[in-house]
């Protein structure tokens, strides 16, 4: 409207680039790990057997299911942040379109898949380390990575990043936190 000032609501300067970078990086790590496990199912099944935590009858199910869970969670997280980024760019260029899809839904759902996986990975690595087994972690990110403090620290950092991202998603509620939207000032 003519004569009315418009304001743009923003989030702190460092948070907006940090959230998508962390989210896309975390999603890409899960995508990569899922692809590695999917392409090498026998190696992954052997890695699961080496932990000596599951009965042999369940190893095949775990080796077949976990890569798909990682692929889905990683893909949803990457898509959720890419949707947010394209929406921000469109608004920044003055374009207004509604995709009908919510990046928030993708991000929250994927983080709810990732957080328990990372918690389980940390628990399994801790149990294995306490038992004194010297085995490959089978993580899918680095080849020939031994179970030990480094693998636990890596998963703990990923867990912390995923937890922070989920917390920020919950803080935002149903709105896109920090979206560049035009807001009519109160008269």
Name a few traits of the molecule.
single chain; 187 residues; mainly alpha; two-stranded antiparallel ribbon
Structure described in brief:
By secondary structure, this protein is mainly alpha-helical.
Structure overview:
Helices cover 67% and strands 2% of the residues. With 187 residues, it is mainly α. The chain has one domain. A two-stranded antiparallel ribbon has the order 1-2. Helix 1 packs antiparallel against helix 3 and helix 2 (41-51) crosses helix 3 (56-92). It starts with 6 loop residues before the first strand and ends with a strand.
Strand and helix map with partners:
Blueprint: E1 7-8, H1 15-39, H2 41-51, H3 56-92, H4 103-130, H5 149-172, E2 182-183
Antiparallel strand pairs: 1-2
Helix pairs in contact: 1-3, 1-5, 2-3, 3-4, 4-5
- Strand content is under 5%
Average the pLDDT over all residues and give the rounded result. 81
Portion of residues within helices: 55-70%
CA radius of gyration: 20 Å
């Amino acid at each position: 409207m003519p004569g009315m000032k418009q304001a743009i609501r923003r989030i702190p300067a460092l948070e907006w680039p940090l959230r998508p970078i962390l989210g896309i990086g975390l999603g890409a790590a899960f995508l990569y790990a899922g692809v590695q496990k999917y392409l090498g199912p026998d190696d992954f099944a052997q890695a699961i057997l080496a932990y000596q935590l599951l009965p042999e009858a369940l190893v095949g199910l775990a080796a077949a299911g976990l890569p798909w869970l990682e692929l889905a969670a990683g893909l949803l997280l990457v898509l959720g942040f890419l949707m947010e980024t394209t929406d921000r760019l469109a608004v920044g260029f003055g374009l207004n379109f509604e995709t009908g899809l919510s990046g928030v839904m993708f991000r929250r759902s994927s983080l709810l898949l990732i957080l328990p996986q990372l918690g389980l990975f940390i628990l399994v690595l801790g149990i294995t380390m306490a038992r004194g087994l010297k085995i490959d972690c089978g993580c899918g990110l680095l080849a020939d990575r031994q179970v030990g403090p480094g693998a636990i620290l890596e998963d703990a950092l990923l867990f912390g990043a995923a937890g922070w991202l989920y917390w920020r998603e919950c803080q935002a509620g149903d709105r896109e936190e920090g979206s560049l939207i035009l807001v009519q000032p109160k008269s």
